[in-house]
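Most newcomers find our protein records easier to grasp once they have seen one. A learned vocabulary of local backbone shapes supplies the integers on the structure line. An example says more than a description, so a record of this kind follows:
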Amino acid sequence: MNKEAIKDHKDLGIYKIAFEAAMKIFQLSKKFPVEERYSLTDQIRRSSRSVCANLAEAWRKRRYEAAFIAKLNDCEAEAAETQTWIEFAVKCNYMNVKVGREVYANYNQVLSGLVNMINNPSPWLRNH
């Protein structure tokens, strides 16, 4: 998708990937043991959703390069955190290895896109 076709954050490819991954994590985490409800389950749901929320915030802060990049950095941190929780879920046998790899790979795509935006914010910035 070219930049001109992007009207809001929901049009971004990395947002779509992150949103779908967060929904997949939500579905998968429903099967996590009840004793994980207030730790792993809550944490993986929170961080995966936070990637999307921070990307939405970053999009609205495009007037100011520093604020835009700061929010994208938050987004990057949440995506990396989500990958860590995926690793725990797989190691604890709460998530199938193959599925874990797929969702982890989705976050690698998101991280790659975020790094590109952070390193080259100019095309994304809004003029005053």
Residues 3-124 form a domain with the de novo design (two linked rop proteins) fold (CATH 1.20.1440.60).
